[in-house]
Amino acid sequence: MATETLTVDFSKAFPLFPLPGVVLLPHGVAPLHIFEDRYRAMTRRALDGAGLIAMASLMPGGGSGAAADAEADDEPPKLRPAVCLGYVSQHERLDDGRYHMLLQGIARAEIVKELAPHEEGFRRARLRPLGEPGADAEAVAAAADRLLKRRAELDALLADPELQKLAAVARLNEWLEDALPTEAVCDVVSMTLVQDDALRYALLAEGEAPRRLDAVLRFLQKTRAEMRSAEDAPRDAGGYLLN
């Protein structure tokens, strides 16, 4: 699970890749197929530079389609402010110019200002880091202590026999490293298990790690309760639920 440490220069503009139904989180990976001309250009420029692309998501009801902002539109769909800055960790350029790539989430950020589209058509924005540790050393230490105290609760839930019945939870326990920081474990669990778009975006947009952990713990507890409730529901002789 270890990833290369990258230094991000937030003074530069970043390309935006808005994709409906996809919310990337730090420590997560999004497999992408790049086929539109403007996003092929975006990918080429990213690969020629630092390899960074900001994965954005649309405001609810903001459209559909590959990038949901067709060039013919007078006004492109509005984007939600929080984005995940990603690094192109692997890529393959196909003979026709399309790309297959893996975008590794590395940092939370928020859109400060969307700029005019690049001359090759893709959207761009100025970003700032979201949830960076502040200058208040006491507050940072308190947050770290809160995470450490609740790590045991997170580990216990992931090892819970009921939740272990979920294949995704069993796989998580196989490859999560004990030494992985709680904040990273929280993001990996969220990326793997949380399918609800609104909740996943809320976890991306939340800058405070202890609050993200609280949300993940509630999600796991709710999932466990729902599984137990389903098992306790009355069934007929064939195993079907009785209404």
TrEMBL record:
Domain Lon N-terminal residues, every copy: 14-224
Transmembrane segment boundaries: 16-35
InterPro entries, A to Z: Lon_prtase_N, Lon_prtase_N_sf, PUA-like_sf
Any Pfam family: LON_substr_bdg
Annotated Gene3D superfamilies: LON domain-like
Origin superkingdom: Bacteria
Keywords: Membrane, Transmembrane, Transmembrane helix
Protein name: Lon N-terminal domain-containing protein
Organism annotation: Phycisphaera mikurensis (strain NBRC 102666 / KCTC 22515 / FYK2301M01)
Lineage: Bacteria, Pseudomonadati, Planctomycetota, Phycisphaerae, Phycisphaerales
